[in-house]
Please model this.
Amino acid sequence: MRSLLLLGFILTMTFSVNASSDWRHFPAVAERLGNQSPTEAGIDLNIPLVIDDGSSVNLKVSFNGSLANEEYLSRLWILADKNPNPDVIDFELSQAIPKVELTTRIRLGESQTVYALAQSNQGNFWLTSKDVRVTVSGCLMGNEEPQADIAMTQPRVALPRNPTPGNAAELRTMINHPMETGFREDGQGGYIPQQLVKSLNVTQAGNPVIDINFHTGTSANPFVAFFTDQFSDLTFTWTDQHGAQVTETR
Amino acid sequence: MSDRKPLFSSSRRQLLKGLGLATLFPAISACTATGTSQASAGRVVVIGGGFGGATAAKYIKRGNPAIDVTLVEPNKTFYTCPFSNLVLAGERTLDSIGHSYDELSQVYGVKVVHALAQDIDPVAKRVSLSDGQTLQYDKLLLSPGIDMRWNAIEGYDEAASALAPHAWKAGPQTLLLRQQLEAMADGDTFIMSVPGNPFRCPPGPYERASLVAHYLKTYKPRSKILILDGKDNFSKQGLFTAGWEAHYGDMIEWVSLSNDGRVVRVDANRKEVETEFGTRHQAAALNVIPPQKAGFIADRAGVTDASGWVPVDPVTFESTQQKDIYVVGDATIASPMPKSGFAANAQGKVAASAIVASFAGISPQDPIWANTCYSLINPDYGISVAAVYRVQENQIISVEGAGGLSASDAPDMIRRSEAAYAVGWYNAISQDTWGTKL
Ligand SMILES: Cc1cc2nc3c(=O)[nH]c(=O)nc-3n(C[C@H](O)[C@H](O)[C@H](O)COP(=O)(O)OP(=O)(O)OC[C@H]3O[C@@H](n4cnc5c(N)ncnc54)[C@H](O)[C@@H]3O)c2cc1C
Model:
């Protein structure tokens, strides 16, 4: 009887551990934090909780935590604990980003917890997470898309419609590339080799605005939208894992 | 207003007679007026007389005729979305996809109230209607379908839908889009904007493109169809693409999300759309299928979550947020089951039997469902996807190895029989749901 009670207690305890404290067991988060503890407020992750198609999931992360004088967010990581590689996408931000609200499309192999971890230039951390369920909807069984050319094509940049310098507005970027993860079997006992776009670097008059690093958890045709208040003299450079580059200017 | 309602349905009265209790009638009715449900087998209010709601109302009555069932639905005739694409193509009349509530009221004894449910008090268990009535329930079942997310696409609100119809609820919107297709000149472009997941009827937009192409091929063969999509892949994609090529050559162009297919702005007056990366397209006929959410009454009942849809217990389809409110059909989060009429009908039966079981004090059975989505590439060329679903660890899962897609290399004869099965399916589900004899 007593041991039963105890068991009940342990079960209750395990179930009451919520998603946001699970990070202690998730090295991708725990190692970045070291012995620091994050603020679990002020950062918001917007992602559907039930996902019909894990190959392209809309994700928006925004920050409204309080920052000290001269403090700004300098790093932001999106991590997924059950993807074969937990790295989804990460950002190096500059002070030229007036408002942190980043939108992207990610890949989720199965139901799991998705984390957003942010760090300021002063070394403070913020963390949030969402448990998501990935299903494949019955009417969505499509055929596998044939793999396109592996080169980066069609770099796209959309400036806001009526931008006024000094007023933050959203800018969108995308490039076509299949983002082959290296985890797909080739049907002959091996794997289709990994082919990724590694990064997108955005500068304004030569100064860094945002650096974005893509990983296997980034969906095909990497898409990122972010807020800026600079709308001219912008250079966008995409680099693939072989060092090839594509550049656009605005 | 409940005092204007008859306190007992005729079946209730018959039951009392049968039990030899008819003489107690006045005494019991006095009790009932105070609001206890003890004296009746239970009161159910069903909101929405579409695939989910009409089915549930009928099957509750079939399960136990002594349960008092009121169905609230503003329309006297329900026009189905299934086969409305044939109306767009001029292959069917709107009348031929209309269904009445006569069988539900006359054969099954469902009280049908033609009004809109405006608000729900889940604590007092009361529904207020547009005609001023208030209905009291023991169990409430919602199958309100979808509402459009107006302004999720800049410039696309309800007023814009009078110029650029969505036709994603059948009826006047279907006729409006049909008129626009008829008004097209040979060589004009028809544009359809398709949302990202989840939305009502995943293969629906592609069937629509097919049947509109069938019409244009016959009457305006130089015209084009442009599908601007918020997704990179879609239901039965391989089968659709092959069918389009075989029947319509290059008439249909599909622009995926990653080729800048997502529409972010609509100018309904000019029938112009703008995509994520600033490409503008102009149409002669413009069909905007906007992002969607559960019908508004689900919000009023407090059963939706942040996604705008309704989480439910998969065994009973009772809301996980409000006791005694059951929700079925497109409004729910039932993925991997699709938002289809077939699924809504099946879920309606599951919720009906859970409600009947609950009044009887017994526990519901674990459900198992099948779903088949037929799509027509032309009126004689059908394709399908089928699946079987059950509950595992309190979640709906798709049973592996069951169901599947039409073969990609099937001969025309098979496509022709699938088109005939689609008609058979339509007739059977219409009869099951509304009792329409076809
Ligand atoms: C073009 C197209 C083609 C389709 N083809 C197919 C197909 O081939 N096969 C298939 O299985 N599915 C198909 N579907 C999907 C199908 O139409 C839906 O999945 C189905 O209608 C969902 O049923 P429901 O009961 O959830 O909602 P609905 O059938 O839409 O019923 C909702 C009802 O609730 C009523 N209502 C809403 N709010 C209130 C309120 N507040 N008070 C009172 N009443 C209210 C509405 O008037 C409506 O009658 C298609 C859809 C489209 C758009």
Notes: Chain A has one domain: 41-65+72-249. DSSP finds two helices and 15 strands in chain A. Confidence is low (pLDDT under 50) at residues 1-19, 138-143 of chain A. The longest helix of chain A spans residues 2-16.
